[in-house]
Amino acid sequence: MTETVPAFTGARLLDETVAALSDRAPAILAAAAGQLGGIRLGLHFNDGSHATLTARHSRIVVDRDRCPDPDVEVAFDNRAMNLLFDLQRSPVDQVLPDSLDVRGSRDDTLAVWRAFTLLSQRAAGLRSMQELWGAYREQAPQLWGSATPAARETDADPVDWTALDFLARRSPEDAPAPPALIGDTTVTAPRLLWDGRTSTDWSLEDRVQDADLMETMLRCRARTNEEIERLLPDREPRAELYDLMRSYPARQGKGLRPTLTIAACAAFGGRPEDAVRAAAALELFHNGFLVHDDIADESTHRRGLPTMHEEHGLGLAVNVGDGLNLLAVDAVLSNLETLGLVRTLGLIHEAVHMCRESIEGQAMELGWIRHEVVPDTDDAYFTMSTKKTGWYTCISPCRIGAVCAGVTDPFVLSRFDEAFRLIGIAFQIQDDILNLVGEEALYGKEPLGDLLEGKRTVMLIHLFRTVYAHERPRLFDVLRQRRTDKTQQHAEELLAAMRRHGSIEYATDLADRLAAEGIARFEEDLRIIPENEGKAVLRQIAHYVTSRPL
């Protein structure tokens, strides 16, 4: 009789682990991808499933299929699968005779071992990973040993995942969550002690902290939304103003800005709660800008729903945007009672600077559209993008969070600028790519909306820089048409030209390069911050732009 292959296979476990880490701890994937480099890894699991693992920039890609010509090939039996998750074994003890079959060159094999050790050691501290791996183990407990301690005591030859069980006992599922916003979303995990040539003692190694980014963003976003609701007046006119002011903040975004603000405060030793009101003010500013931007861009949808002016008319939409910005100013000033005069003055300075940068960037982009100009270089886009979205999305939240912790030294605050300038540009380029090729449900805006609005993205700049001379007049004719005159066919025509000339691939590679430069600057410029929970969250966000699916 043919043995039934479990639905939850080893290949599926690997795939779901990588997918979860992309959302929750992308810094771990980036570290493992750095070890893999260009190695093509073929994996054969104990249940008959197969997978191919490759690194692409700072991402790890899993293909649940055989690799035709791998650089390294690994086959696991049941014992080898068990040892993969045991953090207490030395490398020599993890390789058992007739159990773990590895083929490949010495250097490539060592690189694969380092990559998997990083994944297993650092990911094992995240509760979400424990739950995922535990579900895989419990589908066939006879392979790993009994699930309960009592049953293990009567088992003559127990086989279990020692480290996974230890971590589960240390942080049981029913343990109450701490009150802090950051709290137990971070874990401390060991770095590699052996690189294939030399080993180091535990006492000589810096301990790296990883954060569960998804869990942290959910908490920070929820707490910030509570504060926004508290700040919004409960009085008339409700239907024409205050209820509408709740509309855009209620359309759940990622929570990136609140998380950066609260994490930066925690990184400098401040209380996360002290940054909540400033985070709420940032979200109010942001949503006020969005209402006005949607009017200027003639957008029809925002986060999957009709834009404010489409649903309620221009007059009410303009007023709602004004109201959100006014409430944001009031929220900043209200920090006087909790943070004091000096820090509140610092917050005012940062907020005014952020707003000025944003409106200057908006003016640049609207000017290009009005005067029918497509910049010749990417640098022009970098400047516009940094001003319009980089400051209020990445740089200012970090600086404002630091001010909430009491940091007012301009030199210290400027340590965020270059790293998050590069990360912010990469993030915006990826958003522009997602508008062209991403799923509408995931992206939340109308498909090809940037092309309909005539946005001067990196892809458009590259297209007009490389397009053939005979194509240029027609593409300019399409581009210069008003938003209301463009059709989906016009947008599809521009997209097809971008595909022919490699503009999307160019932008993807550019975003990856900028993100890598930003991460390098993060580690260099923010060395002044000791390893702590707040910095762990900031690091995961820095890596987040490199792991988003495109």
Question: Briefly, what is this?
Answer:
The chain is an alpha+beta fold. 62% of the residues lie in helices and 7% in strands.
Keywords, separated by commas or semicolons:
550 residues, alpha+beta, 5-stranded mixed β-sheet, two-stranded antiparallel sheet, 27 helices
Instruction: Extract low-pLDDT stretches.
Output: 146-159, 188-206
Number of strands: 9
How large is the count of helical segments?
Answer: 27
Rounded Rg: 26 Å
**Which percent range describes the beta-strand content?**
5-15%
Shape: globular
Q: Biggest sheet: strands, sense, closure?
A: 5 strands, mixed
CA-to-CA gap between the ends? 44 Å
Mean pLDDT: 83
**Helix fraction by DSSP (H/I, runs of at least 4):** 55-70%
Instruction: Order the strands across the largest sheet as they lie in space.
Output: 3-2-1-4-5
SS-derived structural category: alpha+beta
